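Lab notes, practical 5.
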Amino acid sequence: MIRSADLIAFHDGLAPRPAGRLGGAIEANHLHNQALWKEEDLARRRNVCDAEIVANKRAIDLNNQKRNDAIERIDELILQSLQSVTTAPGARLSSETAGAMTDRLSILSLKIRAMREQTERTDVDRAHVDACLQRLARLIAQRGDLAACLDCLLAEVARGESYFKVYRQHKMYNDATLNPALYGETGGRKA
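Output from the prediction step:
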C-alpha cells in the first residue's frame, strides 16, 4: 500500500518511485502532470505563431488523457491489492478516489516547486517575494492536509470502513465519435 509520505518524497524528487506496477502508474501520472505544466506555460506565450500554440494545446489534450488514464490505473491497482478486504455494511463511499488524491498531490508538488522558485528570485521586489512566501506556506499546508486525508482513506478502505470506485472519465473532447466538432468534420457521420 502507498503512503502519502512516500508519494511526496517521490514527487519532490527526494526518493525513487514506489515499487511495482502501482509505482509505474504513479510515475506515469506525475510525468504527465509535469508535461502538462510545461505545455500550459508555453500555450500562454504571445510572441510565437499560432501553430506553436495549437501544438501546445494538442499536447495538453494528449497528456491530460494519459494523466487521467494513469489516475484510473492507480485506482484499479489499489483496489486489486485490497480484494481480500470485506467492505463492512454501512461503509462510507468516498467521492474522491485514492488515484485522484495522488494526482492532486503531484500537482501540488509542482505548484510548491514553482512557488519556491518565485521566493528565490533576485529580479523582483521584496513584496513579490513576501507574497510568494505566504502562498508557498498555504500550498505546503494544503498538501499536508491532503496527504493526511489520503492516508486516512487508505486506512479506512483497508479496514473495510470506506470504499471508492473507479470511474471512467470518458474525455469526450478527445473522442471523434463523441465530440460534435470532430464528428461534424466528417459531414455529420460519426467516425
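Observations recorded by the TA: Helices lie at 4-11, 20-43, 50-81, 98-119, 126-158, 180-183. The first helix runs from residue 4 to 11.
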